[in-house]
Structure formats: C-alpha cells, structure tokens
Amino acid sequence: MRLLYCTVALTAALSGCAQLTAPPSGPQSPPQSPPQPEARPAPAPAPAVSPSIIELAGRPAERALLSGMRAYEDAQYPEAERHFGRALQAGLASPRDRAIAYKYLAFIYCTSQRTSQCESAFRSARRADPGFTLSKSEAGHPLWGPVFVRSQR
C-alpha cells in the first residue's frame, strides 16, 4: 500500500513537471495585455452660479439700472437718465447690462433731439457688448433707428 501511494505521488509530481517543461503545441498567440479600465470623460466643470435677483438688487449699480428701467417705462425720462448715468458710474458688472443702460440713454437722447449724444451712446453700447443690437421694432423706430444705423459705420 505504501508502494502504491509513493507511485501515485511520484507520477503526479512527474506529470506536473512534464506540463511545466513541455513545449507548447500549435501556433502561439501573442500575449494579451490585461484589460484596461474604461476611459471615463473628465467631469464637467461646475456651472457658474448666477447671483439671485435679490443679490443683484442689493448692488448699487444694478439697483440704479433697474430703477432707470422702471422710470423709463413710466415715461419719467429725466429721472431715468439720472439712474442710467449712476448705474454706469457705479460699475455695472455685466457687459450686457452696460449695453442696456447705454441703449436706454440713446433712446432718451434721440427723443430729446440730442442726436450726437444718441449716436455716441449706441457706440458705447457696442463697445460694452460687441454683440449688442436692437430688436427689429427698436431698429425701425423713426427717431433712433436711423441714428443707430449711422452709429454702426
């Protein structure tokens, strides 16, 4: 029995060695590299947080712009002009807001026959925001429409 055990153990050991040293049979395939983890896209940057209307209304420049727009809508043009001037002096943060303040000033200047100031305000609006333009109805206005076209030359 002991001899049988030794023979079985010796056979198992030798067969294991034979498997390690035997040459591979058939064509060899190139070694495969370990699987690569999937490339994940970089996380998108966090969106810029815009200030709330309450925060904007608390800023002097933006508050003056809002007051100017309200006065303009109420046909209080001298008061609106003062508010727009204050808004620009106080330093409106947004280029678009600066352009809007200049646009309203241009409208006020044109309606009070201050054509050169109107043209200058339109140019300032475009300098503040190169994408500035008037809506179709604003551009067609008989008083400031032609001045706006002239300011683009």
UniProtKB/TrEMBL annotation:
Keywords recorded for this protein, A-Z: Signal
Signal peptide: 1-18
Keyword Signal annotated: yes
Entry-linked InterPro entries: TPR-like_helical_dom_sf, TssQ-like
Superkingdom to which the source organism belongs: Bacteria
Bias-annotated ranges (Pro residues): 24-48
Renumbered residue ranges of the record's region Disordered: 21-51
UniProt-recorded name of the protein: Uncharacterized protein
Species the sequence originates in: Caldimonas brevitalea
